[in-house]
């Protein structure tokens, strides 16, 4: 069976101040063409169809158009909700839409109930694991302490239990929206560390033939059977080095996986340039970036006058301006920024406690801080889901 694995469409999202709806529509057209020309048997979309719980009308219309075009091809599509989606809204009408071959999986309780498709070599069971917010689904899965690994492991137990009842030789595909150990994040994925450790080990998914992951925006291969497709479009300058693509996966009769990476259309390249303003305006090596979307980091010791206006004369698509002056190594601002770089909220809070009283928090106090941060993030997530 030939699968097309994609995720993280983020319909309705802009790139800085640029409306991306046109580029998103171009991607949908590319997706439909690929399905038709490459004889795809099933499409899997691993979450974050929309960029927010209540998407703009134009994004909903584009999604509706995508569903109609995919259904018209007669190629089944399996989709799950991600942490940006409202699972309830995305799943409205799932039963009716499923009759057209578009299978929406947004309910955690249905993790062990697959969409079963068949080809000449037998059945393939597709299990959809929507984004599982630990604090909201721990009771459903009977885990004592909310954590990403615990709830995903419990969901996978249901998958393996159901698979064991299937006809011997049934192949299996799992769609999941999660941060799996070994994946490389970018700046544009919303944090999903609420309620426990952010990353889960790839071994959680043992026992299935292919795992189609969503959430991280870079296309990545964690193992031959566990892959991220990445987002089809860039949504932050941290993705400047990404090659945006989808996975074309051939699942053989014995469950062997053969994957080919297919490029997505590029609306405009990204570039990150850095240096004193005058150098950026004069450097002939930067001519190749004049038509790119640009993030410029100025290192002038004193902020120049009208930097954005001057930059856009040469780089008309400059979208982001960062001021990071070169400073002496002993400058207090340099040392403070370095102390904070790469540190979590928990680590910064523990450092503050140590600074104030001369000794860091003990294990019990670390637990109190951790619970406090989790409670704040959980409240924010619950409010967003409820919108």
Structural features, described:
By secondary structure, this protein is an alpha/beta fold. It has 3 domains: 2-263, Purple Acid Phosphatase, chain A, domain 2; 270-323; 332-386, no CATH class. 33% of the residues lie in helices and 22% in strands. The protein has helices at 21-37, 57-73, 87-90, 94-98, 134-141, 148-164, 277-282, 307-314, 332-340, 345-357, 363-386, and strands at 2-6, 14-15, 18-19, 42-46, 77-80, 102-105, 115-119, 122-129, 171-177, 210-214, 220-223, 226-228, 245-251, 257-263, 270-275, 293-298, 318-323. The strands form 4 sheets. Strands 6-5-4-1-13-14 form a 6-stranded mixed sheet. Helix 5 (134-141) runs parallel beside helix 6 (148-164) and helix 10 (345-357) crosses helix 11 (363-386). The chain is globular. Heterodimer of SbcC and SbcD. It holds the Pfam family SbcD_C.
